[in-house]
Amino acid sequence: MNSVLIIDDEKRMLDLLALYLRPHDYTCKKAQGANEALLFLEEEDFDIVLLDIMMPEMDGWELCQEIRSISDVPIIMVTARDQKEDIVKGLKLGADDYIAKPIDENELLARMEALLRRRTPANRIETNGLLWDEERYELSYKNQPIKVTPKEFTMVGHLLKKPNQVFSREQLIDLIWGFDTNTEGRTVDSHVRNMREKIRQAGFPVDDHFKTVWGVGYKWIN
Questions:
Q1: Mean per-residue pLDDT for 26-47?
Q2: Is the sign of the CA dihedral 20, 23, 27, 30 positive or negative?
Q3: Which residues belong to any copy of the Response regulatory domain (predicted)?
Q4: Contact, 79 vs 50, CB < 8 A?
Q5: What torsion, rounded to 10 degrees, do the Cα atoms 187, 160, 136, 124 define?
Q6: CA-to-CA dists, residue 106 to 16, 20, 103, 109, 122, angstroms
Q7: Angle at CA 41, nearest 5°, toward 36 and 45?
Q8: Cα 42 from Cα 131, distance rounded (Å)
Q9: Cβ–Cβ under 8 Å, residues 2 and 27
Q10: Is the whole-model pTM more than 0.85?
């Protein structure tokens, strides 16, 4: 599930966009204006930002620059202004895409999905600040590496790639140790305990995501 920060000075528009997005596996945070948005961005990480241009105090162009000074999060400008010079200005200031009101729900979803695909390669999975990077062979939380063994790294990768799927101990043994191994379920449980503790010590709320399905195995919930 991807997290989106919606920024607009109109509560009606905030509520409407959140209503569009929640059924499509987005968690939505609503910021009514630039100051509230900057507070949220200091407190947590987001996968994508929807940013209105015409706001009092600080407009979307100024806020886009502020966001770019602290984050590379994808930004889609959402506004009633659709003149070419406005689009060019937004892109030059660091926005990644642009959509005009009235918003077509399917177009918005398609643009968001396209940005997220470009941001997260298949061998790189991020969820709430926890990053599994297969190319670097690294697990980290908020850019701080978590020291795990190769088998622990492989196990968490399988779980992250298929959230909500239950993996039995036998499946995990086949995937990680191979079909011809004499490894038993107790070994899987031991690796799980160690891995959970390492991720927990790094500060990630692992118990909210890495679940035991009693009598069956394990699953990851985003």
A1: 92
A2: positive
A3: 3-116
A4: no
A5: 170
A6: 14, 9, 9, 5, 24
A7: 145
A8: 19
A9: yes
A10: no
